[in-house]
Write a structure and sequence with these properties.
alpha/beta; Rossmann fold; 39% helix; disordered N terminus
């Protein structure tokens, strides 16, 4: 016997309709993501999508990374995803790197079409790097490709070492994982060995960077990996 919802539609029919809509939406998103990837490739620009829960340190890591790369004459640009306010975009702008803010409102993730719109207003560097800071969330952003070449998953030591086990898709689909705020290790209950074990079990090929963006620990290895991703000169 089918359970009828308030709207009068059978619940099973509503589930099927919802799934069809979701699949169509993701197919459309992938189409825009392919367009974005084409833009990046024509410009020989490497694009990075940063995913983490709120407060994991994405913006601080970007600030320190951008400042260091500017000193090394690496061309960069940033797309900043924010649900509300422009506080993170202001912080990025103070580094002197071009930034375009995308306000997502009630949406808990960036979509490829929003990134495509941003690219119409942001000059991305030729043979440089584009950093996309996604909205703070470890669930929704994992389903939406943006056209990026690299997907960076962050987890801070202040969150708990079990985050990779709780949100596996964010780490399984990453090309690199950052364990941030390691300067706080003496003050929090975070098992670094267990966190690395969980991450490696989900994604054995992804490099894991343990760093403190504020203290500088581990930043040299991180920056070397980023610079290694720069498109080669023809």
């Amino acid at each position: 016997m089918l359970v009828t919802c308030e709207c009068g539609q059978p619940e099973t029919h509503r589930r099927e309709s919802s799934l069809e809509v979701e699949q169509a939406f993701l197919v459309e998103n992938d189409r825009h993501a392919a367009h974005n990837r084409g833009v990046f490739n024509r410009k020989h620009t490497r694009a990075f999508n940063f995913i983490s829960s709120p407060g994991a340190g994405k913006t601080t890591l970007l600030e320190k990374t951008l400042t260091a790369l500017r000193g090394r004459k690496v061309g960069c640009a940033v797309i900043e995803g924010e649900q509300a306010s422009d506080l993170d975009a202001q912080r990025i702008a103070r580094t002197g790197v071009p930034v375009f803010r995308v306000e997502t409102g009630r949406a808990c993730h960036l979509e490829a079409q929003k990134v495509q719109h941003a690219l119409e207003h942001l000059e991305i560097p030729e043979r440089g790097l584009l950093f996309i800071e996604n909205v703070g969330n470890l669930i929704c952003p994992t389903a939406f490709k943006l056209g990026e070449h690299e997907r960076i998953a962050l987890v801070s030591v202040s969150e708990g070492h079990d985050k990779p086990g709780k949100y596996p898709l964010a780490f399984r689909n990453a090309t690199a994982v950052v364990i941030s705020k390691i300067d706080l290790l003496p003050h929090v209950d975070f098992d670094l060995v267990e966190a690395r074990r969980l991450i490696a079990g989900l994604n054995p090929k992804a490099p894991i960077f343990e760093l403190s963006a504020t203290g500088g620990d581990g930043m040299d290895e991180w920056l070397a990996w980023i610079e290694h991703k720069l498109p080669a000169e023809v």
